[in-house]
Design a protein that fits this description.
The complex is a heterodimer of chains A (266) and B (418).
Chain A lengths: L7 E8 L2 E8 L3 E6 L10 H6 L3 E6 L16 H15 L4 E6 L1 H12 L4 E7 L19 H7 L10 H4 L6 H18 L9 H4 L8 E6 L7 H10 L4 E5 L6 H4 L1 H13 L1
Parallel strand pairs in A: 3-4, 3-5, 5-6, 6-7, 7-8
Antiparallel strand pairs in A: 1-2, 2-4
Helix pairs in contact in A: 2-3
Chain B lengths: L1 E5 L31 H20 L4 E4 L13 H11 L4 E8 L6 H14 L4 E6 L3 H6 L7 H17 L4 E4 L4 E5 L13 E5 L3 H10 L3 E4 L3 H17 L9 E9 L3 H8 L20 H4 L12 H7 L10 H6 L3 E4 L1 H15 L3 E5 L7 H26 L27
Parallel strand pairs in B: 1-2, 1-11, 2-3, 3-4, 4-7, 7-8, 8-9, 9-10, 9-11
Antiparallel strand pairs in B: 5-6
Helix pairs in contact in B: 1-13, 2-3, 3-5, 6-7, 12-13
Classes of the chains: A alpha/beta (266), B alpha/beta (418).
Chain lengths: 266, 418
């Protein structure tokens, strides 16, 4: 957990029958952010930038960080069902939602279950669909650091890489990753990182303004999966960010923030 | 005392380039099976079965098999197939499976049936061990690692119920679901074959065994951490209100006996040559860290004292030399005269009721194995039986581990009619 300012707070709240670690920061129209398979990475530059116009609401999903896992959540649709009740309990009303990778898959599942709940949807290098060409990189056949490194096109040239993936992670950081990997594994071991029916279910989002964002050189979830998302969600738009891998929000923060802000304000 | 024989049945192919400790890396998951030679495979499967028949002839009480997947160091990818053949071609020895990897089975009813058939055909000679498997097993059969321990326990409960309770019944579990459980084969032994649990790493598993009064077999670890782990078993038994003893514990380690000290050393060194188990000292293939850290496979905290001994300093470095292993008794080689006192020392230290001599492995040839088996039969086994009597080391076939009392009727081993 790192921070570039004290523009955010962290608390434990009770939601949908469990305690949840909740980070909030920035001000403006609320934006629910669903973190990826390695957990909330800490308050990064893109959070700081988006926080200028939006209140960011970043829960740690049950089983990640300090949010205990729930025994009955055994797949992504269970998790999506839990989230809908958690949003009821948060009393946020209709809200914008953005998900990264595994969190993008989760966002897509949640949205298909209750599209009226969300004003706009942003999916960033989202898992959840079996790519027609290439394969989703197997995060469980490498160790955490190797996976995070693989997520970047240019780790050496990315200033925040060392923050996300320090050369010598602290024991707390290493344990945070292992907890995240374990919960990601519970929900996505097989079929690996996708749900076969998701492309069909996505047609329910026909009235939902949806922005899909992909790093052109994503080595974790191939761009071809992004194109299936785009084809499956009527009216969606796909923005491809050059010189970025699986984490365009970190590698090309300015471009990423510009796309998100343009979409949210449009 | 129960004395068993074990080998991992390595795939030995000198052409492969990984034969020998200085050969190329055989890092887990990095080897392709495109080099597999069916002639070699056929010869080796038959050789290992022949050696088991001879081991029985030489007086071993048990023939132990294990199972691993997608690796050359153990050819027993479908161990129950080998066990089925042994059920018919051997006559007296127990067939000790250590063990079936419960969590990787999607349909444990098949295990209920296969094992009961082996017990039938062998007329009650099956010892049915369970394991949780290493990372490569979960990956090879695509079983979700975070549910490994839950699936293990549920499969065990299901199998025991299917073996012991009249069908049909339904099973609506968390991981397994059946609408009609009524297998038309039940075990020969009543209430069911003994279930044993081998292990090295997980404290959860060892304590579970102690709570279920299931014998625990420690695999090829140093004496001191093994003693500590056995003490955890004894302490757990005490908490459960019973007194555990040698009948609850077993130990497996490497033993090779030969005609001269020189020959014994020359062949003994072959333990640390040839296709290597990345988890075993002296000849490790490079351990794949990702497999060792497969998420949720075992608790990151509740590990046994033997775990560090078994998995420390991995990374392709030959961390424990042959000489060190001779020194710390994890390898015992020599002529019968030098081997027997060393076995006595191990029995005095650990007090197991069951032991397994792990032999004929690494780069050892068929002739190496046959000489050792002959000398074990002629000299070592009879001497070890005497020592075990003197030290009072009953096996789980002498004292019922479920009751702590002698079996009312010694379970008869029925001779198969010729």
């Amino acid at each position: 957990m790192t921070t570039t300012s004290q523009a955010w707070t962290e608390e434990i709240v009770e939601l949908a029958g469990t305690s949840v670690q909740l980070v909030k920061g920035g001000s403006g129209e609320p934006l629910l952010i669903l973190h990826d398979e390695m957990g909330h990475p800490g308050w990064m530059n893109f959070h700081e930038a988006l926080g200028q116009n939006n209140e960011l609401i970043i829960p740690s999903h049950p089983g990640f960080g300090d949010s205990p896992f729930l025994d009955w959540i055994m797949n992504m649709r269970d998790m999506a069902g839990w989230y809908l009740e958690a949003l009821d309990d948060m009393g946020v009303g209709q809200i914008n939602m953005m998900g990264f990778s595994f969190g993008g898959w989760l966002a897509a599942e949640i949205a298909t279950m209750d599209p009226g709940r969300f004003s706009k949807l942003i999916l960033v290098d989202a898992a959840g669909i079996k790519p027609p060409t290439g394969e989703i990189f197997d995060m469980f056949l490498v160790v955490a650091k190797e996976f995070i490194t693989e997520s970047f096109l240019n780790p050496e040239g990315t200033s925040e890489f060392a923050t996300i993936c320090p050369e010598e992670p602290t024991p707390e950081q290493a344990e945070y990753w292992e907890v995240a990997r374990e919960q990601a594994c519970r929900l996505s071991w097989r079929p690996y990182m996708h749900y076969p029916a998701l492309p069909n279910l996505l047609s329910r989002l026909k009235n939902m303004p949806t922005q899909i964002i992909w790093g052109r050189e994503d080595a974790i979830v191939p761009l071809s999966a992004g194109q299936v998302f785009n084809d499956s969600i009527p009216g969606s738009q796909l923005a491809i960010i050059d010189n970025a891998g699986h984490r365009p929000e970190i590698e090309q923060t300015d471009e990423f923030v510009r796309i998100v802000q343009r979409f949210l304000s449009g | 005392m129960f004395i068993g024989h074990f080998t991992e049945r390595p795939y030995q192919d000198e052409k492969s380039g990984y034969f020998g400790a200085t050969g190329k890396s055989i890092r887990d998951l990095d080897l392709s099976n495109d080099i597999y030679d069916p002639q070699i495979g056929a010869d080796l499967y038959n050789r290992y079965l022949d050696e088991r028949v001879y081991a029985e002839e030489m007086g071993f009480d048990g023939l132990m098999l294990n199972e691993h997947h997608s690796t050359p160091f153990c050819m027993g990818g479908a161990m129950n197939v080998e066990a089925s053949i042994l059920a018919k071609i051997t006559k007296k020895a127990k067939i000790v499976l250590l063990g079936n990897i419960l969590p990787i089975w999607e349909d444990p009813l098949w295990l209920v049936e296969q094992l009961a058939m082996i017990d039938m055909i062998s007329r009650g000679r099956l010892v049915s061990g369970w394991v949780r498997g290493t990372g490569r097993e979960s990956v090879a059969h695509n079983a979700p690692p975070p549910y490994n321990w839950e699936r293990f326990q549920e499969a065990h409960e299901f199998i025991v119920k299917a073996w012991t309770e009249p069908g049909p019944f339904r099973w609506e579990g968390k991981h397994y679901n059946y609408r009609y459980v009524n297998p038309w084969v039940k075990p020969y032994q009543k209430p069911h074959p003994q279930i044993w649990l081998p292990g090295v790493v997980s404290e959860d598993s060892l304590k579970w065994a102690a709570r279920q009064r299931i014998p625990y077999i420690m695999l090829a670890t140093k004496l001191e951490p093994t003693k500590q782990a056995f003490q955890i078993y004894h302490d757990t038994a005490k908490e459960e209100g019973y007194k555990s003893g040698p009948q609850n514990l077993g130990y497996l380690w490497k033993v090779h006996v030969d005609e001269t000290e020189e020959l014994a050393e020359e062949v003994g060194r072959k333990f640390v040559q040839g296709p290597s188990n990345p988890f075993l000292a002296g000849n490790e293939g490079t351990a794949n860290q990702a497999l060792m850290k497969l998420p949720g496979l075992t608790s990151r905290r509740r590990v046994l004292p033997t775990m560090n001994a078994a998995t420390a300093n991995r990374g392709g470095v030959l961390s424990t030399s042959y000489e060190e292993q001779i020194e710390n008794y994890t390898i015992v080689t020599g002529t019968p005269d030098t081997v027997i006192p060393k076995i006595r020392h191990i029995l005095e230290e650990l007090r197991p009721g069951s032991i397994f001599f792990w032999d004929g492995d690494g780069a050892m040839t068929h002739d190496d194995q046959m000489r050792s088996l002959r000398l074990m039969g002629q000299e070592v086994i009879p001497a070890v039986r005497e020592i075990a009597k003197e030290l009072d080391l009953p096996s789980s076939f002498d004292i019922n581990p479920a009751t702590g009392a002698p079996f009312e009727d010694t379970p008869a081993i029925a001779e198969v009619a010729d």
